[in-house]
Write a structure and sequence with these properties.
The protein has 194 residues and is an alpha/beta fold. 53% of the residues lie in helices and 14% in strands. It has nine helices and seven strands.
Length: 194
């Protein structure tokens, strides 16, 4: 596990999971939100984002969290040796976007650029969830099925599976169980739709 792509629908806990994974593995973390957006929610020019992303993919070790754009996402999935796909029930995504809004009134959301516009970003999250579910979720599921023989693939379908994944990584890489992450998902387990 040297080049890790963490991806899935909006509000699925990807940034929190990626941050904890980086702590456990000591791999450098690159949240795409901070590469695509400047402080205050100002968009980085697309060509600039693509250049920075391409530079990251040439490195030997990284964890990249998020989507970016279709072109960069599929390049990243191809270059990654490990895919971590967060595929929670839609109700969980909606709830966690709402929870992020509420918590965001007191502290910046995990992986977001400084002074990000909380309200408009939350509304965008609500709009993205059904679009991603229709357009990307089938492609993501096919990707993890097709690459399971050639890459490390982790298809995480519940908060409990997310915690178990981090626990296993903690035992494998650090020789101990991770701490601190489970509080983010405690009480959030919902029945899997698969």
């Amino acid at each position: 596990m040297k080049r890790v792509a963490v991806f899935g629908n909006a509000g699925g806990g990807k940034s929190t999971l990626a941050k904890r994974l980086a702590e456990l593995t000591r791999l450098p973390l690159y949240p795409l939100d901070t590469m695509q957006w400047k402080a205050g929610g100002v968009a980085v020019p697309h060509e600039e984002y693509l250049a920075v992303h391409a530079d990251l993919l040439r490195r030997d070790a990284w964890i990249i969290d998020g989507f970016g754009c279709a072109e960069s996402a599929w390049e990243r999935f191809s270059r990654a040796d490990t895919l971590v796909y967060v595929d929670l029930p839609l109700v969980t995504h909606y709830w966690w976007v709402t929870k992020r809004l509420i918590k965001g009134l007191w502290m910046a959301p995990e992986g977001w650029p400084e002074n990000s516009p909380l309200w408009s970003s939350t509304l965008a999250g609500y709009r993205v969830i059904p679009l991603c579910d229709r357009a990307l979720t089938p492609r993501y599921r096919q990707l993890v099925a097709d690459t399971a023989a050639s890459k490390r693939v982790h298809h995480l379908r519940s908060p409990a599976e997310m915690m178990a994944f981090l626990d296993a990584v903690g035992q494998e890489d650090a020789g101990s169980s991770p701490t601190g992450y489970d509080d983010a998902f405690r009480g959030q387990t919902l029945h899997n739709r698969h």
